[in-house]
Fold this protein.
Amino acid sequence: MLIYESTKNEFCNSVLNDTISDEIHASYQKKIGNISKKEIGAWSDSMQYMYKVVQSEEIPNNCGIAIEFRIPSSSKRVDFIISGKDKDQTSSVVIVELKRWEEVHKVEGKDGIIMTPLGRGLHETTHPSYQAWSYYNLIISYNETVQKENIGIHPCAFLHSLDKEKNVEIEDSLYRFYIEKAPIFTKGEVLKLRRFISKFIKYGDNKEALYKIDGGRLKPSKSLQDSLTGLLKGKEEFIMIDDQKVTFELALSMAKSSFNDLNKRVLIVEGGPGTGKSVIAINLLVGLTNEGMVVHYVSKNSAPRNVFAAKLKGSITRSHIDNLFKSSGIFHDCDKNVFDVLVVDEAHRLNAKSGMFKNRGENQIKEIINASKFSIFFIDESQKIDIYDIGEKSEIEKYAKMFNAHTEAIKLESQFRCNGSDGYLAWLEDVLGIRETANYDGFKGQYDFKVIDDPNELKRIILEKNSVNNKSRLLAGYCWDWKKENRNKSNAHDIVVPEHNFSISWNLDNTFTWAIDKDSVNEVGCIHTSQGLEFDYVGVILGPDIRYKDGNIITDFNARAKTDQSLRGVRRLAREHPEKAKKIADEIIKNTYRTLLTRGQKGCYVYCCDKRLGEYIKARVEKSSFLQK
């Protein structure tokens, strides 16, 4: 979508007349909606610099100018585009990522991430060169007109307020790959940027290339399809078995039908931990893209997106992979049927509103169904672990009906985690007091479950198990604050159990892939970094938010960390409706531990901060019949 478009001559006149911000603002409100005054100020400032860049005979007066171009099939907006023709009279476009930054710091251990003041304090964000290059990849990967007509796309970044000499880390070797793909220009480099643009824009085109890009049909490029072909071969963890394959074929059939007749369809796939929901989701992402459909894997939680993206990377570039994985909160301003297929993993974690402050959009389920011809939702309602989670089967069915979508539901029965034992899950739910089951006395099957009396011993066991293949991790309930000032230091210990002289750090903030990082076994993951993922063995610390008293499992939301957002608002609710708040918190805390205690495929070891809880679970283990030597 072109928010603002003009020729270079018209753009320069608008800047000279001080009307450019008003023009962009009016067009934005008409096409998308309200925009903050802060962003309007950013336009006004940056456009003055771009005026200096393009106001030259080197750049034709009738070349096209676009500001705030929203890339189809995404919520991404390109700050500034210049279109024209190169020396061979071929359509050519330069995309410019604009930043008003004055300070930057490199971030070790994260690919393409840099730190800069954003709002209050320093925050991590993508390096401008990576950002510009990712937009380039998104356009060439999904715009059929760009692909067929071989329109040249040339990305760069312009940090017009940044003093490079005082901020040398902007060009640190960490970012060399991305800077080579999308050169970076800083304060005092207007002429350098002008020369870069004039290399690719020799003749004006009266906005022709802008219209081609904006109106291009969405279709995955041949290079993207070729890159994905064979991507899953040799990766045993993505091989489908039994009802996974049945579900995959049903989804494939429904996707093809919607692709051909343009009628909306919705598939709801229910399944407990380890039934292979994510395996099917990744196979559909790859398989349907190879069928020529625009497909994205969607999840609220970033941890599975980042881990699966990392596992799929091979010959395919990071930007290609990243463009296949989307957050669930980006579809609130999407047009109808923009995507062929949206594959929603961990759909029980969907929220009504999006954004950090839950103030964007209306309902994520509704938005996803609206934005896609075919949407598939993988859910396990027992894994709702946040007060804002709304992903229930009945809610999905309600919105599917609203869109007159043909809806089907299927249930995955086969259990591949916990050594294939559905009985363990039932026994665990009985132990945690989630529901009474027929598995009070245990279950059949071999699964290594033990209660450990000392967290130091728990750590030793997991370190030993992990030394085999890097597939064992420590997890804990979110009962200790994740201290902001030490989030990148493994030796800064957040979790402390004084009676055992035990302390350890939460997972570090300088990585997106804690679950598979080489040394992350030395830190503890929480529900947000482990949900949707699996390991061979897990060691789980049950915090003071769950205890055993008077023959019952009790939960205490006041024992949760202040930095945990999953129960945000429950304390306020407790003042007015204490019983309602207690019920909500009890369900979330128990679901959290159910999820943590089912991350291990081969075994789970438990330490309880509450001694009576440890004794109770140990007694249940001793009475059980599932342990096999």
Notes: The longest strand covers residues 77-85. The CA atoms of residues 449 and 484 lie 34 Å apart. The chain is about 35% helix and 20% strand. The chain has three domains: 2-215, 222-412, 430-623.
